[in-house]
Write a structure and sequence with these properties.
This protein is α/β, with parallel strands linked by helices. It has six helices and six strands.
Amino acid sequence: MAQTTTPRFAADAMLGRLARWMRVLGFDTTYDAELADPDLVRLAKDEGRVLLTRDRHLLRELRPRLAHEIRQDAPLEQLRELVTALDLAAPAELFTRCMLCNTLLPPPLDEEAAERLLPPGVRGIPGPVRRCPVCGRIYWHGSHVRRMRDALERAVPGWLI
């Protein structure tokens, strides 16, 4: 049975690409490659996050309260492992969180604001345009979105809506 509340995650330094995929799916996933293991465990505990790690030593020595050991090597295989192991519910919408800083993205910009921000070659592409209020990164539905959806569908067939 899928979870009724959406878990939050903290990814260790070895899982940066998995963290980005989790953010694409809208999962609140902290990632800081510079954070020392004890600080990461403390952050996960203090914020009620599931610690994602490949580091068995970290699990054995620091004993985080909520943790999942990632065993797969490739990021999309790691994602499939996590979706299966934690019975994660598919997101209602992709690209609702900044892939760089994890900030929840605001509603799409109006057409005029979007046109001003988009690079000339992609102006007029249909679909929502969002801007991260923290780091300023712009998101739009270009061909990369289709490729990412296809990759997610291959990784977790039938999971996405």
